[in-house]
Amino acid sequence: MKHPLSAVILAAGLGTRMKSSTPKVLHKIYGKPLIQYSIDSVQRLNPKNTIVVVGTGSRGIENSIEGYKLSFVVQKKPKGTGDALRTASQLLKGFNGDILVLNADTPLISASTLQRFLKLHRANKDDISVMSFIIEGPHSYGRIVRDNDKVKEIIEDKDADEEQKKIKEVNSGVYALKAHMLNLLKKIKLNKGKGEYYLTDIIGLSVKKGSKASAYVLGNETEMTGINTREDLYKAGLYIRDMIVSEWMRGGVSFVDASSVFIHPEAKIGADTIIYPNVHIEGKTVIGKGCTIYPNSRITDSNIGNNVVIKDSTVIECSTVKDKAAIGPFAHIRPGSSIGPSSKVGNFVEIKKSIIGEGTKASHLSYLGDAEIGKNVNIGAGTITCNYDGKNKHKTVIEDNVFVGSDSQIVAPVKIGKGAYVGAGSTITKNVPALSLAVSRTEQKNIEGWAVRRQVRSEKLEVRSEKNKRRKGKR
After folding, report:
1. How do beta strands 98-103 and 169-178 pair?
2. Catalytic residue, candidates 180, 280, 364, 394
């Protein structure tokens, strides 16, 4: 028989130690807010509903999480985790099943760990369970107090005596409980020192009631770490980075220096791709098979085909690069661009919202914006499309097999027909017919002997200047 499941994610904490105007759970690791990691792990358990408890003034949390079926409830005053779950219980009336409770600031807990926890909770027919872990050294976690191996209560660090502080089994903040156990929330007493209702007290209350309570040692200290400071955020990022890189290594991707590469969780990479140091692969980027990505490159929300070479210090944003293309070094592919198969975008070339056809080459020092460029086109060094008139953007069309000479300016809107040539240094303001040569520059003049005459004039001026100095000296 399938057990219905509801999940409650507690996200009402103030996060004052982050020293930020941004709610703590909206701080990001690799483009994802902390809370989204918790939501993603929970969603893999297929809960009937997922309730997120936020604090007042945290409307930004609700607006920042899209694409999920979530219910939000507001904890009007910060009265602790016990009160937060009691607030969520308003949306659980009539629900008869298991409730999973976790914190939004613990992004490292995996779905597999949560699944194992729920499996133990259900197999042992617990009324309430808490996930625990073992920790060495000083810490501030609540201790799991046992009596003959049975859970007795959870004691917060500041309330623990010297003997209890020696306990190494501690609370992760993850609970599973049957719906009827929500009634115990009313019996949690206010902690006068903090002015809060501690959810941890529900364990002791359930034991006194005679309900079956258990604690299961799962995961590790790192996986259970809550994010409270910027340092915690940084360390969690490194942990996630290492997990992601290891997963891609197992999938056939090679890294020259895995410790300097950052890959977002939603990115995809094909086998036999080689990634050099200091590469950032962001958002929902998809990289094909057999690619080579050289150092200091950043790729964001883009689709990269198979056997693509991305050379040093290249930026690609929200664009498509098709099979066997070569990009860089020092190229910038701006949003909305499509780079065709076997094409080349070279040194210091910027492409903006343009289509580059198959086999086309723009090898160096060019800007191509709002352009549609066909197949096998040569774009000479220093070429620019003048797409902006100060008010509106205009389109340039360059058809197949066109040769554009170096240092050309193509003033849009304009069309260059198939097989046409544009002479170097030209400014093109009118359409160029197919198979034509377009030249726009003044006629060259050679003035013979000019350099000799210039030199003679220069020498005469120097003699005259020396004479003037002598006259002034005699006076």
Report:
1. antiparallel
2. 364
